[in-house]
Design brief:
It is a single chain. The chain is of the alpha/beta class. It is built from 26 helices and 26 strands. The protein has a 5-stranded parallel sheet, sandwiched between helices. A 5-stranded mixed sheet has the order 7-8-11-13-12. Helix 9 packs across helix 10 and helix 23 packs antiparallel against helix 25 (about 790-810). The two termini are about 25 Å apart.
């Protein structure tokens, strides 16, 4: 059973009156106060930011040639192919971002190269192949006479496959947004926004947006060739961006805004007049109109993803998204809808089975949930793992042991760390290996039983690093901090489960993982409706970094609740439940409608309760309604934030400037970038204690977080510096304090202890005399040979510390406030 959720509400300072008035200009039918609070809370704090955020016409997007020489090389190679009439293959991916990226290149490059003769595309089978390039596919393309491969949403780390393609006379242009290799791959060009700094306009582009930038550059370079406007591709870009859950800021937000507008305009046309009749038919089947980001995230995205999850081969989705043949598109849309119906049913079945297995776990001693079953279909494991992670507050890994043959991870997780599929050339040794991020997995592949599945994370736990540290137990692995795909020998599952749990427990320390739901605003039932909906709509499109506003409604109750199985468009029942209800409170006489997906009416509390919900507009029923996120019986003071510390975000400012921006007598200034939440909690609790002893709220203790973005040295360099200092101190017989060492090397006390242990393995002797350390060295070849493992532990500790500091350099203020409020609640309710 899921643990009791911990609720928090974001507490922020009241925006100034001038800002509220500025927001009101964009919400003339309402006061604008709620939108102003949210925008201020999310870092929009001046006129220019506000205008560019709300009105895409005021935003200046980046040129595709911001990618510099790489874009120049890509365009030059495409122009060469255009002039020589060479055959080109688009290599896509099987999720919604990859499918839309393939479609953008198919339509966009199709203006310059004749489709199906000069231009073809290939999408791997989700259930038989992994993400990325593979040798069998490259061989087939070579046999068809292809001279150039353009990847989309994949390919950055496929070093061996790129080399093989080159040996076959095929050049490769990579367009991708996943993890970068340690060195530039041997490609003609690589267009990947990860090469930019995090602050760059293009850093957060998804695969489809990167593909669009390549086509945009080609349109600019060959302005008189294309017959259809570049803007015709924007609806596909919006679908991929929103479905891939990238951070919708800067150029991502701009492209999504334009794309949603195109999507809506096309849907308003009669089916025969639509540019994308397949997209229009999909919207009709899911009863959406295309004018909301949720029409993509809850409608189009899941349906496109369902095809590969259920059928494996999603190639026809490109035809669905790009064809003008209405009859053919209707047929393909119905196949897609059937796949989504099947996906819902399978997902529901697996959810029930996982829930049963969870009852056999002691969650109080479980940090990472790892469950397996021989009958689970791999295609839906990521969806169920995500739901379990949200409900339990713990990273969740679900594994299927349904077959002997390794078929790749089978789930989204960036580029695979192992890119040698079973279908590789006969002359290639049957071994598994990878070198991404310095990771090397290598052992013979035999007919052994493999488990493969998906992992999802929550609570800011870096799942990628967590799983990667168990690489010696894995067969394949690929992913990012919040999602991953993996496979391993079934016999290794118990050891993997124990190791990954121990690792996370050690990194968490005294921190407890609990499921958390966060509210942005407190409203009443009387506030709900068209006026509030239109006011909050200025924040759209919402997504990562700008989530849909969560509304807390307190002391309310439900009436007229009923539930039913969802039906597909053919009237067939599927095992998927939703509950509809009316909600009331004491703010007015009228009830307000709402729904709760995946729940029965009996799960609603009886009597007064508190709930967190999102406000939505139901296009099909033409009504405003709430979508329930969480509900519980009313609790007094559950979200009391009166005495929470007031946190000022002064990061990346000079100390003198930070000091000037605080109230001198009321502020504690934290200059050192934390390396853990526990480190930051010490300061938060100190402020909380002072605040509680204050006589008035006006004397509330302030905490100014004023650290700068860390400028890290490579871990190897830090190790060499530590060894050099130790040798110098031994040679000069000088003592040193621990603080002096920390300041010189720039690491934490805990990591220094790991480094001292490594020094001892190199033959150093470290003795403590009062507050000083005396270091002497007696070099030994035997000692150096024994030191490798100890040095590796030190380098791993440095990397982990640097990762944590990078996280805290950019962590949103809202997250820090939420942690402060949750600690406040826990301490006042013990």
């Amino acid at each position: 059973m899921p643990e009791q959720q911990q609720w928090t509400i974001i507490a922020t300072e009241q925006p100034p009156e001038w800002f509220i008035e500025a927001v009101k200009q964009h919400t003339p039918a309402s006061s604008g106060i709620y939108a102003a609070q949210l925008l201020w809370q999310r870092g929009i704090k001046d006129h220019q930011q506000l205008t560019a955020f709300i009105n895409y016409k005021a935003y200046q997007p980046a040129s595709p040639f911001e990618f510099g020489q790489e874009m120049d090389l890509a365009i030059a190679r495409l122009q060469q192919a255009y002039n020589a009439k060479e055959k080109i293959a688009i290599w896509g991916d099987f999720d919604a971002d990859g499918i839309t990226a393939t479609s953008v290149l198919w339509d966009g490059l199709g203006q310059f190269f004749k489709q199906n003769t000069q231009l073809i595309f290939y999408i791997p089978n989700r259930l038989k192949e992994s993400h990325g390039l593979n040798n069998q596919g490259i061989d087939n393309l070579a046999k068809q006479g292809c001279k150039l491969i353009v990847t989309c949403d994949t390919g950055s780390t496929n070093i061996e496959e790129i080399i093989d393609a080159k040996q076959l006379g095929i050049d490769v242009i990579v367009t991708d947004h996943h993890t970068l290799p340690t060195e530039r791959p041997p490609v003609t060009a690589i267009i990947n926004p990860r090469y930019f700094s995090r602050e760059h306009q293009l850093f957060n582009l998804s695969g489809v947006a990167v593909a669009y930038k390549l086509v945009e550059a080609l349109y600019q370079s060959l302005p008189n060739v294309a017959k259809h406007p570049l803007e015709h591709l924007l609806d596909l870009v919006a679908v991929g961006l929103i479905a891939d859950l990238v951070q919708l800021s800067k150029d991502c937000r701009y492209l999504a805004q334009l794309g949603i507008q195109r999507l809506q305009e096309d849907f308003k046309q009669p089916p025969a007049a639509r540019r994308r009749p397949g997209v229009g038919r999909l919207l009709e089947l899911c009863q959406k109109s295309g004018d909301r980001p949720t029409d993509i995230s809850f409608g189009l995205g899941p349906r496109i993803n369902a095809v590969s999850r259920i059928q494996g081969d999603a190639s026809f989705c490109v035809e669905l998204l790009t064809s003008r043949d209405v009859k053919r598109c209707n047929e393909l849309a119905e196949v897609t809808e059937l796949a989504n119906t099947r996906r819902k049913s399978l997902q529901k079945d697996v959810q029930a089975q996982v829930a049963q297995k969870l009852t056999q776990l002691d969650l109080s001693t479980t940090s990472v949930i790892v469950l397996e079953d021989a009958q689970w279909p791999a295609g839906v494991l990521g969806l169920v793992a995500g739901q379990v992670a949200q409900e339990t507050g713990r990273p969740t890994i679900l594994l299927s042991t349904e077959g002997l043959e390794d078929k790749g991870e089978g789930d989204k997780g960036g580029n695979s760390l192992l890119l040698t599929p079973n279908s590789a050339r006969a002359e290639r040794p049957a071994t598994a290996n990878s070198t991404q991020h310095g990771l090397n997995l290598s052992y013979p592949l035999t007919a052994l039983l493999l488990a493969r599945g998906s992992a999802r994370s929550v609570n800011s736990v870096d799942l990628y690093q967590l799983v990667k540290d168990q690489a010696h137990l894995l067969h394949r692995f690929g992913g990012h901090p919040f999602a991953a795909g993996l496979s391993l020998l079934v016999e290794n599952i118990p050891l993997f489960t124990a190791a990954i749990n121990q690792q996370l427990r050690q990194s968490l320390g005294s921190t407890t993982l609990t499921p958390t739901v966060q509210a942005d605003l407190t409203v009443t039932v009387a506030d709900l409706g068209k006026e509030l909906f239109l006011e909050l709509k200025v924040l759209e499109p919402c997504g990562m970094g700008n989530p849909v506003p969560k509304l807390l409604i307190q002391n309310c109750w439900f009436e007229n609740a009923w539930h039913r199985n969802q039906q597909d468009w053919q009237g067939k029942k599927v095992q998927y439940i939703k509950t509809e209800f009316d909600i009331r409170d004491d703010s007015g006489r009228s009830a307000f409608p709402g729904l709760w997906w995946g729940h029965y009416k009996d799960e609603l509390p009886i009597g007064r309760c508190d709930c967190i919900a999102e406000l939505d507009y139901n296009t099909f029923k033409k009504r405003y309604e709430i979508r329930l996120i969480a509900v519980r019986p009313s609790v007094n003071s559950a979200l009391n934030t009166q005495h929470s510390p007031l946190i000022l975000d002064l990061r990346n400012q000079e100390y003198s400037q930070a000091r000037a921006n605080t109230t001198q007598d009321l502020a504690l200034i934290l200059e050192d970038c934390p390396t853990s939440w526990d480190n930051l909690r010490l300061w938060l609790r100190r402020c909380l204690a002072i605040s509680r002893s204050a006589s008035t709220l006006s004397n509330q203790q302030q905490l100014a977080i004023a650290w700068s973005k860390p400028n890290h040295q490579p871990p190897n360099q830090i190790w060499l510096t530590l060894v050099g200092i130790a040798k110098y101190l031994s040679r000069t017989n000088q003592p040193v304090t621990r603080v002096q060492l920390l300041e010189k090397i720039g690491i934490s006390d805990q990591t220094l202890l790991v480094g001292i242990k490594a020094l001892k393995h190199l033959g150093f002797t470290i003795k403590r005399q009062d507050n000083y350390l005396q270091i002497t060295w007696h070099p030994s070849d035997r000692a150096e040979n024994l030191a490798d493992e100890a040095v590796a532990r030190f380098l791993a500790a440095v990397r982990e510390e640097q990762f944590q500091q990078q996280y805290f350099a950019d962590v949103p203020l809202s997250t820090i406030v939420a942690i402060a409020n949750s600690d406040n609640y826990m301490s006042t309710n013990l």
